[in-house]
């Protein structure tokens, strides 16, 4: 990526952060879809600086505070995923959602 001379506007930095967030979100979705073993997904999340907020047998919640990404994994009893969601904090709706500071 090339930048022209001069000050980088605040919006441009915001756009770079948004692009980085989206790239990581896509990467996480690809990892989840291609990796049936949760232990491998857990290691991938850790390597991307995600922090477990909850890591139980039925639900796992991971956050990446710097990029403001939230990952929810709902597990099947057989070991696969019943569902998942990868989203930015800003996209979460509802007052019942409590996010780490």
TrEMBL record:
Domain of life of the organism encoding this protein: Archaea
UniProt protein name: Uncharacterized protein
Organism whose genome encodes this protein: Methanoculleus sediminis
Organism classification: Archaea, Methanobacteriati, Methanobacteriota, Stenosarchaea group, Methanomicrobia
């Amino acid at each position: 990526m090339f930048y022209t001379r001069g000050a980088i506007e605040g919006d441009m930095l915001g756009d770079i952060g948004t692009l980085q967030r989206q790239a990581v979100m896509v990467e996480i979705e690809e990892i989840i879809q291609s990796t049936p073993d949760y232990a491998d997904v857990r290691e991938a999340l850790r390597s991307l600086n995600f922090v477990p907020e909850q890591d139980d047998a039925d639900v796992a919640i991971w956050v990446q505070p710097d990029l403001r990404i939230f990952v929810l994994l709902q597990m099947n009893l057989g070991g696969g995923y019943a569902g998942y969601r990868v989203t930015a904090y800003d996209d979460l709706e509802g007052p019942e959602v409590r996010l780490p500071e």
